[in-house]
User: Which sequence fits this backbone?
């Protein structure tokens, strides 16, 4: 398509925007994008919290009593070789006793009276993904030198499950938003298309290409989508930063996402969604009239 | 220029508009398609500009099988065919000049080409002096002349006319027919569907008669009704 044609058709799209009740569509698209972006940001934060929690999940593997030093090294290497293991740290009997003393705090006085150190040697195993905890624990327990393993499987499962559900819900909302907002935009564009149906019919008869006919309508749809998404982006951008600041002040232990990268990405996704909504909506409304 | 081989067109609801039509129209021909309402005249014309495709058989326009054209090639075919209708199909919010220029704008002709060709087309149909008028200010015959100017401005190979004089009085009808003859003399093939006995009988051009979707008569210098 030639540049002067693009200019001329763009002018048509902007003139049409003034004539049709596009403000209603822009507001609806904005509302849809607000819902979607809110879910997206909550999902991103839950994932961050989940990731930090998952990074802290460890399996503790207790060794059988009186292991020779080479067996300890062998076990260390065997655990390290299990897929999904991030790191393995050996905890000797003395270190285990010191840890217990720290945990007991003021109540650790009786530890000095013990005739011998009853605690076994162990390995602290950090994981790449908490979801692999069951598999790795089972593999570690199969080693001859390991007598027992401890971790919090149910908590890990629940966390992974909640995150999965939240992302699925966000995905479903994204689909509903895309379909719903597209239909709204489609209805607005339909008014323009209907008003110009005779013109479209003549265009087709004198040999205009579908791209030529579609261009102003698609552009109008994309502008509506982008304006709606842009308005939502401004509200979400300002609102989220304020909210994140407030949460950080009242609950500093919460790992809220505050970096501009994540927020920027969310805004870019919203704008892409807005453009997609316009594209899909305008295509729905014009398709019928192109079959001449 | 137009070749139809065993063309059958069945619309939804099993409505058979054309049945086994064989027709050859040479370059430079002037052909009247006659027959009662519902005999398949408009369907036959729409097959030429690919307003529809045959259910069975083949339609070749300028050597190309229109049913096998890719969707993106259809506009290229239509740029070589001018189409006019009984209801003119003019854009009411554009001037005469703009209505004619529209046919060139949508195929992305250069402004220079538009400035050159539109006045030429309007002169040919005798409306150069009404270039700035709006369609509603024109009489029916003048509106049809604008439609003809729009159809010929792109120098088509074929002019397809679907009852172009249906809304016009007898005198204006004859003016329009003179104009179509002029266009034909310049080398454009004209295919026209009509109910107008007077025009067909007066002009003595090729007549193809349709009845219930079949060609029942094809005469080189025919009249509206069969002459024994």
Assistant:
């Amino acid at each position: 398509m030639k540049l002067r044609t693009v200019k001329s058709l763009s002018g048509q799209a902007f003139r049409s925007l003034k004539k049709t009740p596009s403000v209603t569509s822009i507001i609806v698209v904005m509302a849809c994008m607000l819902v979607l972006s809110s879910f997206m940001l909550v999902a991103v934060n839950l994932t961050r919290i989940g990731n930090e929690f998952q990074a802290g999940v460890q399996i503790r593997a207790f060794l059988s009593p009186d292991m020779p030093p080479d067996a300890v090294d062998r076990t260390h290497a065997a655990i390290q070789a299990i897929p999904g293991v991030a790191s393995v740290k050996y905890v000797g009997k003395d270190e285990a006793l010191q840890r217990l003393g720290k945990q007991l705090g003021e109540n650790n006085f009786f530890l000095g009276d013990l005739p011998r150190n009853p605690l076994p040697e162990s390995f602290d195993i950090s994981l790449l993904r908490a979801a692999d905890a069951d598999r790795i624990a089972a593999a570690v327990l199969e080693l001859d030198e390991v007598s027992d393993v401890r971790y919090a499987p149910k908590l890990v499962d629940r966390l992974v499950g909640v995150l999965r559900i939240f992302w699925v819900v966000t995905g479903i909302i994204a689909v509903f938003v895309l379909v719903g907002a597209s239909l709204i935009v489609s209805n607005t564009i339909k008014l323009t298309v209907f008003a110009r149906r005779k013109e479209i019919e003549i265009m087709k008869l004198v040999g205009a290409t579908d791209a030529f006919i579609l261009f102003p309508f698609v552009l109008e749809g994309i502008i509506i989508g982008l304006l709606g998404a842009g308005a939502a982006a401004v509200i979400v951008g300002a609102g989220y930063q304020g909210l994140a600041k407030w949460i950080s002040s009242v609950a500093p232990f919460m790992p809220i996402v505050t970096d501009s990268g994540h927020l920027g990405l969310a805004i870019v996704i919203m704008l892409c969604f807005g453009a997609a909504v316009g594209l899909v909506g305008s295509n729905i409304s014009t398709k019928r009239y192109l079959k001449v | 220029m137009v070749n139809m081989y065993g063309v059958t067109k069945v619309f939804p609801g099993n409505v058979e508009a054309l049945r086994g039509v064989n027709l050859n129209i040479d370059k430079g021909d002037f052909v009247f398609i006659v027959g009662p309402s519902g005999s398949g005249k408009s369907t036959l014309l729409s097959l030429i500009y690919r307003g529809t495709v045959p259910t069975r058989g083949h339609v070749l326009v300028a050597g190309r099988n229109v049913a096998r054209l890719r969707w993106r090639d259809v506009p290229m075919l239509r740029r070589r065919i001018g189409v006019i209708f009984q209801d003119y199909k003019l854009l009411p919010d554009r001037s005469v000049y703009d209505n004619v220029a529209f046919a060139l704008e949508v195929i992305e002709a250069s402004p220079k080409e538009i400035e050159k060709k539109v006045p030429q087309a309007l002169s040919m149909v005798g409306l150069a002096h009404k270039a700035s008028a709006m369609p509603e200010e024109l009489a029916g015959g003048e509106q049809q002349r604008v439609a003809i100017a729009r159809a010929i401005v792109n120098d088509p190979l074929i002019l397809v006319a679907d009852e172009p004089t249906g809304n016009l009085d007898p005198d204006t009808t004859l003016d329009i027919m003179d104009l179509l003859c002029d266009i034909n003399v310049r080398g454009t093939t004209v295919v026209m569907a009509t109910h107008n006995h007077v025009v067909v009988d007066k002009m003595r051009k090729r007549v193809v008669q349709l009845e219930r979707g079949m060609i029942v008569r094809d005469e080189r210098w025919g009249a509206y009704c069969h002459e024994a």
Remarks:
- Chain A touches chain B at residues 1-2, 4-5, 8, 198-199, 201-210, 212-213, 292 (CB under 8 Å).
- Chain A has a mean pLDDT of 83.
- Residues 67 and 246 of chain A are 53 Å apart (CA to CA).
